[in-house]
Amino acid sequence: MTAAAPLAIAAVALLSPLAARAAAGLELMPDWRILFGLVVFFLLLVFPLNRLLFAPVFRVLDEREQRIAGTRARAAQLERDAEAALARYEASVRSAREESEQTRRALLESARADALGATGEARAQVERQIETARSDIGHALESARATLRSQAPELASQAASRVLGRAL
Fold first, then answer.
1. Residue-wise pLDDT tens digits, 7-21
2. 33-73 pLDDT per residue, tens
3. How far apart are CA 117 and CA 109, in angstroms?
4. Cα angle at 63 between 50 and 48, to 5 degrees?
5. Do 134 and 126 form a contact (C-beta atoms < 8 A)?
6. Per-domain residue ranges for the chain?
């Protein structure tokens, strides 16, 4: 399309209402006096309408936007507060778990030490009893040996007389 083509289209658009007016008796081009009066009337209505209608509507829309932004900011703050509270809760749970684990370990070590002490004490007592029993057995053995030594000649002669079948 050349540069003259838009000018030609504009000229046809401007001149065609004149041709249509002449042909059909219709008036497609407004009267300039009426058009000027309408523009003045429009300009006179713009300021009161702006003050009475548009300004309040825009103010309400702005207030609504501010409330939405405030609500979003409060929601974001509440979310941050909730995350902080959750972090504190998790930290306190973790601390309580660590503390209970340390307490459990301490109790376990104490129980192990008590068990080892009791086992050691029982072992020592059993060893003392074994020593006492060994000593008693040793004394009884010595006593039995002494008795057998003193009775050996007599027992030997009784055994020989039984084997031989006669008295010695």
1. 567 666 666 655 555
2. 888 989 999 999 988 988 999 999 999 999 999 999 999 99
3. 12
4. 10
5. no
6. 30-124
- Contacts for 29 with CB less than 8 Å, ≥ 6 apart: 17, 18, 21
pLDDT at 23 over 70: no
Tell me how far apart the alpha carbons of residues 37 and 50 are, in angstroms, rounded to a whole number: 20
Q: For residues 30 and 17, give the distance between their C-alpha atoms in angstroms, rounded to a whole number.
A: 10
What gap in Å lies between CA 9 and CA 81, rounded to an integer?
66
Report residue 167 as tokens. 């008295």
Does this model's pTM top 0.70? no
Confidence of residue 157 (pLDDT cuts 50, 70, 90): confident
User: What Å distances lie between residue 98 and 8, 90, 126, CA to CA?
Assistant: 89, 12, 41
In order, the DSSP letters of 103-126 are HHHHHHHHHHHHHHHHHHHHHHHH
For the chain, the distance separating the N- and C-terminal CA atoms, rounded to the nearest angstrom, is 165
Specify the residue for token string 């409330």.
Answer: 67
